[in-house]
Amino acid sequence: MLEKIADMLRGIEAPGAFATRRTVAADRLHIEVKGVGPVKLPVSAAAARRLSAVARPARYGLRDQTLFDPGVRDGWEIDRRRIKIDRVSWNRVLVPQLVGIQRELGLACAVRAELHNMLIYGPGQFFAPHQDSEKTDDMIGTLVVMLPSAFRGGALAIEHRGEKVLYQGSARKLTLIGFYADCHHEVRQVVDGYRIALTYNLVLEGGASAAGIGAAAGAAALPARQIDALARRVREHFDTPYVPRWPHEAPQEPSDRLIYLLDHQYTQRSLGWHRLKNGDAVRAAALREVARRLGCEIFLALADVHESWSCDDDGEWGGWGHDESADDPADHTLSELLDSSIELRHWVDASGREAESISTDVLDQEVCCTIPSADLEPFRSEHEGYMGNYGNTMDRWYHRAAIVLWPRERTFAVRARASAAWAIRELSKTAATGDVDRAKEMAKRVLPFWKSIARRGQGRGFLEKTLRVAWALGARELAASLLAPFELERLTPTAAPQCIRLIERYGLEWVKARLEEWSSGCPSTARAAWLASLPALCGRLCSGDSPGGLELARWLVSEQWAMVRADICRLRENFSARQRIEELVRLGKPLLGLLESSLVARSPELQREILGFLTDDESGYPLRCCMRLLRTARSIHRPPMLDALGLMIVHEHCARTLAARLDAPPRAEGDWSIPAPQRCKCDLCKKLGRFLVARSDTRLEWPLAQERRSHVHRILDGEDLPVTHVTRRSGRPYTLVLTKTEALFQREAIERGSFAADLAWLAKERRAFGLSSRPTQKPIHGLAEHRLRGTELQ
Hints:
The protein is an alpha+beta fold.
């Protein structure tokens, strides 16, 4: 379908050329140059030398810079402020010529010429291929008025879309050459004599108000049957499901948009309906008429195109990697388009006013053009040579412009693609008016692409607004689909009231199902931070009189504790000691958040379960992490909260364990025993364990194949054991030599010092954790149990 639309647009003949040449008599042009005086035409060689003497070296523009490089441009220029022209006499010639140039360039609007400068090229001078910068918003091209003089060479070569024209000056007449600003052109080297020219900016008359006039004139000039046929094809494009090129892909919904890439280049300053150039102008007029007939929105936009191609070297292949000497695009033949992307920006509406950006991903099934980007000159190219797993590639970037149109009734879906936040605002407004049925239809329109855009648009307040819309729709499945893309860590206290409303409308189980979906996709690092803030969310859920809010809070805390407990067990079973400690330390604040949340949600059973797990020797939660948990809690909570959280249980567990370890006699001088790792139960680890726990064994020579040696290496390094492991590479298999080191005794001394410091800190902080200043004879677990049950009774 897109190919047929492109063929129809290609068949709309451009009304003009990209460049034109005219000659007129020179008797009406009277010029004076400051420092030289009147310049008599034809210009003599002596007069040309005088002009060169008062001129300055010519510069050229590159993006936003003005540069001087004789290797690119070698010539002279005289600023327009030093040039005086008899305008009355000259305009009698110039104005009629501009009318002809306008017609020959295919412009619907009149143009005027604004003097820019005078250029002088002497023997050997030139200007390499380049494009003119558009110096004003309405500048559309350049007019070169070549003064009559005797010279050879210096031809003006102009190229556009692979077509090239070559214009020479005249010895007796004025030569007027007009061309579009996006054309590549060059001044070829002057052989002898002097080439002198006035340059003008060609500027459109009429401004933005000419947009409608130019469009109407262009459409009126087209045969009605061409517009009819084009309108039918565009309607079919919007109504026909897209059939992918690969058989295994399922057909997709019809495209919402048609994007036509224009032939000429435009800048942000020059993009406008009345500024479009020859073929672009008439095709734009045709599409505007089609849009009017079909009830479509229509816009202009700048299109930044990026294409990646596989390519073949035209020269000799020189080896692997990137070869900067081979980066000339002329040295490569493009073979297959691998990937392409288009970014639309700077939108202009049908009236010519700048419009709000509607930037979205551009799909292949939306785009057509009369000239492929590969046939144009890219503004940037990058070549990557053979890299082992893939061949030559060429990346090319183009600045293009586009016409974008879509059926007016699909405006919501098109704009929703660009901004999920905007879509939710529109859904909310529609539902607020009472037109819930229309809001449902709008919501259904965005479902095919909702997951991708909603994940990009999860900014501040976005979830809360979506929750409100989900409630307003009153449709369980549709509301569930709108909420599907979110993640649990987005659920903040401000969303709690909306969750309670959803419970009242759809039921507690429905809301639980949504949170289960979000939890499954929640990244662990983000979840850890979210769990630390969970008490605030639970507080909001439980603050009202809603039984559903309280039940949701209890369920949420219970589910998250189950996940954290599973993570701790997984760490114990699958990670080394060093990794396990690092991860468990990271879980300290989340565990405190769960404890406080269980208190807020009035769930003492869960609170007791968490505390019991932390103090159970069989759970695998290390003493070091329990101490870190207590210190963290002391730094962020006041004593009444420490007491309410029941952390006296953890405090007393740590105190008893530390006291028992300090009461144990220090390691004897000849005791080389090391506790064996428990993570792996294989035969290798069993033998390793026997060596480690042996009190008198300090060295083990162990013939092992490479894979078995690697396993032992991983265990020793992962558990950070004070044992060196060296492979003696003699015999078959090689021998793994394990040696216990003196670090065993040094570590124990450091560890006992740490135990003493921790025990002293616990003694100092007893009151803060709700304990008497002296250890009580009553079992601390019983006291804590009594307090927790008291909380439950309250």
